[in-house]
Design brief:
globular, 17 helices, mainly alpha, 0% strand
Length: 378
């Protein structure tokens, strides 16, 4: 990546993608609520809970969408002139603080509310970013943090390989990663837990495939999406793009939140999201332009912290509220689901201001220092 392209990319910001992020995060929360309901006969007899269990079959797809977005921004914003150590350190600074905060807070809440601690060994793997990368055989206290370990190591892998080989060979490798990764994702027989018992495991393959697909969307941006956006579009082109955006938004999020499609191939939703992301990057439709606003950017900035923290709300609900107030959980299902969402979002906002934003500011200073060092060395 040339210095000119890097500087251009640093100035570019996609607020409409922040809107997609927060919708995906809300879908993940619903999926984790479903996981807590499964196997509990008293709860699955309640109509709302039963509906969530029966219809949220594609609720794990938002994680694959996050991988695609992360792959795009990995190549869109990374300064490949830096060395591997600098890149990995910045990734750790970006990802770990909120995870550490969430883990410590959850242990404290368990001791206070349930008067019972949990083993810290699985959480040690999380803090080393080794959760669910083939070296552990179970989930940590906060099971959703497997995603961050995969994100970290796949990012490091692609950063390093991109630096050392020719681009045409890199493109071939990434194409293979997309095909083989999603083929594994579709056909692998899952263990229990589903992400942990493979040397080349389910979660890692999802990260490898999704981030490779995001790389090709980045290439599309460099090759022609930027030029399309810079030009003037005819009204029929804008209307066509808008219709595609509306259709894909409804198709993707209806299948994630509400009712799964009859043809149960999750790759269709993943590919539909890839097309939607391309449309949002191109910003030719009225929907993608409408969502390119400061409100989208404001709510989107909390996504990472909400993703990490919401499992605390879900776990406390199951371990404390359901145990001590089962009748309340059964009789007021709507309020209980709403409470998990509200508390999860609230915890995410608190974590953002207490932990994530200070770490971002620290990382910004480190980035400025690294860029100055790279320019001096060059």
């Amino acid at each position: 990546m040339t210095e000119q392209v890097l500087e251009k990319n640093k100035r570019e910001y996609f607020k409409n993608i922040d809107f997609l992020r927060i919708l995906l995060c809300l879908g993940i929360i619903l999926r984790h609520i479903r996981n807590s309901l499964s196997g509990k006969a008293a709860l699955t007899a309640v109509p709302l809970y039963q509906h969530i269990v029966n219809n949220n079959l594609f609720g794990n797809i938002p994680v694959d969408c996050f991988f695609i977005i992360s792959g795009f921004f990995l190549f869109f914003t990374t300064n490949f002139a830096q060395n591997f150590y600098q890149f990995a350190l910045k990734k750790l600074i970006r990802l770990l603080p909120v995870v550490v905060f969430a883990t410590l807070l959850y242990h404290i809440l368990l001791l206070v509310l349930v008067h019972k601690g949990v083993t810290i060994v699985p959480d040690t793997w999380v803090l080393l970013m080794l959760h669910n990368v083939g070296l552990t055989d179970g989930y940590s206290t906060l099971a959703n943090t497997w995603y961050l370990s995969v994100l970290f190591w796949v990012s490091c892998l692609y950063f390093y390989v991109y630096k050392i080989i020719d681009k045409k060979w890199f493109n071939l490798i990434m194409a293979g990663c997309v095909f083989l990764g999603y083929a594994f994702y579709l056909h692998a027989k899952l263990g229990n837990p589903d992400n942990a018992y493979y040397i080349v495991n389910y979660g890692v393959m999802r990260g490898i495939a999704g981030m490779a697909l995001g790389y090709f969307i980045y290439n599309m941006y460099n090759d022609f999406l930027g030029k399309i956006r810079a030009g003037s579009s005819k009204i029929w082109q804008k209307l066509l793009c808008s219709a595609a955006e509306i259709f894909l938004l409804i198709f993707i999020f209806r299948n994630i939140f509400y009712k799964p499609m009859h043809y149960e191939n999750k790759l269709l939703i993943i590919l539909a999201f890839a097309v939607l992301l391309i449309l949002f990057i191109a910003k030719q439709g009225y929907i993608s332009k409408l969502l390119e606003n400061n409100i989208s950017a404001f709510i989107g900035k909390f996504t990472f912290s909400i993703y990490v923290m919401h499992v605390l709300a879900r776990n406390i609900w199951i371990k404390y509220v359901y145990v001590h107030y089962p009748q309340l959980v059964i009789e007021h299902s709507i309020w209980n689901v709403a409470a998990i969402y509200i508390l999860g979002i609230l915890l995410g906002v608190i974590a953002y201001y207490l932990v994530e934003r200070p770490s971002i500011k620290f990382l910004g200073k480190k980035l400025a220092g690294t860029d100055a060092k790279v320019k001096t060395e060059s």
